[in-house]
Design goal:
Distance between the termini of chain B: 25 Å
GO molecular function (chain B): unfolded protein binding
Keywords (chain A): Hydrogen ion transport, Ion transport, Transport
Radius of gyration of chain B: 22 Å
Number of strands of chain B: 2
Strand content of chain B: under 5%
Protein name (chain B): Vacuolar ATPase assembly protein VMA22
Largest sheet of chain A: none
Number of helices of chain B: 5
Number of helices of chain A: 17
Shape of chain A: globular
InterPro entries (chain B): Vma22/CCDC115 (IPR040357)
Organism (chain B): Sesamum alatum
Structural class of chain B: mainly alpha
Structural class of chain A: mainly alpha
Distance between the termini of chain A: 30 Å
Oligomer: heterodimer
């Protein structure tokens, strides 16, 4: 049962909802992707993108282009749009918009910590960080030796502080600890975001619950598949799954004991929304699983725009742009490597 | 009598020259096939790497994560100056580099035994065996798998199967390179023999 959002939403959220719907109309269409897939060089891609909203961001880039340059400039556009929306937002929308970036913040923290462990220069690592996940004291992460210091010196003053309670130890940071820290932080973040959306109630709660539950389930499947054949125990694997979603709790119990992709398929096919995803794959194969999940995610994100007066459109727009940037990255790599026959392996059309 | 002995000797000499030419042509054929296979393995590897970046995200797969701390090489090449001959020792344990080079030697022995099947066929067989995990002794196979995971851990311990496939492709490419080096050495040796035969004939 929705609240009377239609009466009051537009007072504070009307302008930004109109803005984000305008941004949405600028997403690349199937015709744009068809043109891009036929490009012979990265300069051709730049030429085609100059006719889109990415034009101003790429026009001053000199040849020869690199695929990372295209991705960086397209990401800058997303960052500018996000900052514009955040600057105009009032509570609780501003908090909602900030939640969207915490995932990138976690990735940046892990990147800096891992790179420091590998004796890399901090400046070099900062250049590789995602701009949406930057915060003031991020460079100080390089001095921490263990998670307790990470928390005490840097993260206590960041929005990630509440997520550290489950993973603070005095053990020195190594590759396994960092991986567990990454997944534990992300789990805590997703659960916190879910609770926040539930508190908002109404259409936002309903739409965001579905989108975040899908995200939690997808992460559970990816963690399972990626941990097959590694030293991660079943109990540790189970602890990394989020405590919500369609797979919680029985699906998680089955996934925790899976030893190969076919067992994962067996566990997932009991859930109708995921049966359609796994039906696209042949037995023993996991290469196309990512694309199948992205396609399902894009379908759900597009449906979020079918309804008005909720914050889910902002989350959906950010995710759709990120998918578009992934598409552009893949197309650029296929063109640069002269492998255009493989371009449709990973491109997910949004419209 | 003497002329018939000379005739037999010259016929033997011609047969030997022809054999040298055949050896040379065989070596060239092997070399060209190996070069093509190497190119294909590298193309596949680079595309799989792009696929892994697409799947895991650019922040998890990038050059800034390479480990710059000093560590033992997990794979070494031994050079025997006689021919010259190159031998690849893969996935030696970083604790005891000598102990687990047996798996590499085992695979190299397999490669030499199967040489008559042709490089492309034996390369495909080797990839299938590795993917099935069938041929190597269990202990050394597990150690090789551990060393592979250890090398990949610079990108995180829970990596996508696409990144593991990338590692296998580049590993195959490395084996191809060593085999190309050995084939090139035997090609040049065969060429020298053909040149010598030509000189003797003239």
């Amino acid at each position: 049962m929705y609240g009377f959002e239609a009466l009051t939403f537009n007072i504070h959220g009307g302008y930004l909802e109109a803005i984000v719907r305008g941004y949405r109309s600028g997403l690349l269409t199937a015709a744009d992707y068809n043109n891009l897939c036929q490009c012979e060089t990265l300069d051709d891609i730049k030429m085609h993108l100059s006719a889109t909203e990415y034009g101003p961001y790429l026009q001053n880039e000199p040849s020869p282009l690199h695929t990372t340059t295209i991705v960086e400039k397209c990401t800058l556009k997303l960052v500018d749009e996000y900052k514009h929306m955040l600057a105009q937002a009032t509570e609780p929308l501003s908090t909602f918009l900030e939640y969207i970036t915490y995932g990138h913040m976690i990735d940046n923290v892990v990147l800096i910590v891992t790179g420091t462990l590998h004796e890399r220069d901090v400046q070099e690592l900062l250049e590789k960080c995602h701009p949406l996940g930057m915060f003031d004291s991020i460079a100080t992460l390089a001095v921490a030796q263990n998670m307790r210091e990470l928390y005490r010196l840097v993260l206590v003053d960041t929005p990630l502080a509440p997520y550290f309670s489950e993973c603070i130890t005095s053990e020195d940071l190594d590759d396994m600890n960092i991986e567990i820290m990454r997944n534990t932080l992300y789990k805590a973040y997703l659960e916190d975001f879910y609770r926040f959306c539930q508190k908002l109630g109404g259409a936002t709660a309903e739409i965001m619950s579905d989108l975040l539950a899908f995200e939690a389930d997808r992460r559970a499947v990816n963690i399972t598949i990626n941990s097959i054949g590694t030293e991660l125990t079943r109990d540790d694997r189970r602890k990394l799954y989020s405590n919500f979603g369609l797979l919680y709790p029985y699906g998680h119990e089955e996934l925790a004991v899976c030893e190969d992709i076919d067992q994962v398929r067996g566990a997932m096919e009991k859930y109708p929304p995921y049966q359609s995803i796994f039906s696209k794959l042949s037995y023993g194969e996991s290469q196309m699983l990512d694309k199948a999940f992205y396609e399902e995610e894009v379908k759900r994100l597009c449906l979020a725009f079918e309804q008005q007066f909720h914050y889910g459109v902002f989350f959906a727009y950010m995710r759709l742009r990120e998918q578009e940037i992934r598409n552009l990255m893949w197309i650029s790599e296929c063109v640069a490597q002269n492998q255009k026959s493989r371009v449709h392996d990973s491109v997910v059309f949004i419209f | 009598m003497q002329s018939s002995e000379n005739g037999v000797e010259s016929r033997n000499g011609v047969a030997e020259s022809e054999q040298h030419i055949l050896n040379f042509l065989d070596s060239v054929d092997s070399y060209l096939i190996l070069m093509e296979t190497l190119s294909s393995a590298l193309r596949q590897g680079w595309l799989e790497l792009a696929s892994a970046r697409h799947s895991m995200g650019a922040s998890r797969v990038n050059s800034a994560l390479f480990d710059l701390k000093s560590h033992h090489a997990s794979t070494t090449v031994q050079v025997n100056d006689d021919l010259p001959q190159f031998k690849l020792c893969k996935w030696a344990s970083s604790d005891d580099p000598e102990k687990y080079s047996e798996e590499a030697k085992f695979e190299e022995d397999e490669l030499f035994q199967n040489k008559s099947d042709g490089p492309r066929h034996q390369h495909q067989e080797l990839q299938e065996k590795r993917r099935d995990g069938g041929a190597s002794p269990v202990g050394t196979d597990n150690q090789a798998q551990k060393e592979r995971s250890k090398t990949l851990s610079m990108f995180g311990t829970l990596v996508s199967p696409k990144l593991r496939a990338t590692q296998l492709s580049f590993e195959t490419a490395l084996e191809m390179l060593v085999e190309i080096s050995n084939t090139r050495a035997s090609l040049l040796h065969a060429y020298d023999q053909v040149q010598k035969d030509r000189t003797n004939t003239e």
